[in-house]
Structure formats: structure tokens, C-alpha cells
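Thread: "does anyone have the structure for this chain?"

Original post by V.I.:
We have the sequence but no experimental structure in hand. Need at least a predicted one for the grant figures.
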Amino acid sequence: MGFKWEGLYYYDKCLAMGLAESCRIFELVSDAILFILKHHFNLEKIVKVLDDFLFLGATQEECAATLHILPGMLTPGGAHSLGEDLKFAISDHHFLGHRAGHAGDGSQAAT
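Reply from O.Q.:
Generated one for you, C-alpha cells below.
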């Protein structure tokens, strides 16, 4: 969003919270990120819901390699620091009400 005043342009660098257009733009961006990860980096074990991504892997090494791709891909585009948002879960992890981890395939609902 922006405006022009006295010949100068002023605009927000962030999407305004709660606007339908902001949600649409963010969904387009996150869909593009998913497309790039699947088609450029050949990562197929990805689940995306709104702004949450879940990367799955059969081994710890596969998960670690996948986890290192995202920050390098987003940082040049101005994405915020992912720091605490990135989690490497070897044991059970809950995502969208389901449990995933080395002990199961995530088909059981979380309690």
C-alpha cells in the first residue's frame, strides 16, 4: 500500500495485517516458494499450510540438508530472519494436530 504526496511516493514495506489483498499476495508468495523447492531443488516431501512448511525426510542427513536450503533461498529476497522458526525434530513433533517423527508416519492424531 502506498500513496503519492507532493511528488513523492510513500509505501509500506510490509503487508498490512487483515487485508484480503495481503492474504492473497502472501499465499501467492508461499505457493511460489513451494513450487521452487519442489521443482528447482527436487524436494517432494513438503507440506505447506498458509505460512507453515513441514519438510520430511527418511534420514537425519536428508532432513538436515533440506533444512539448510530454505534460509539461503529466502534471505536474498529480504525475508525476515528465520532463527527460531526453523526446528529440526528427530523425535515426535506435532504439526496441524498430527504427530510426526521417527516413531510413526504422522497418521495418528495428536493428543
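V.I.: this helps a lot. DSSP finds two helices and six strands in the chain.
O.Q.: and The mean pLDDT is 74.
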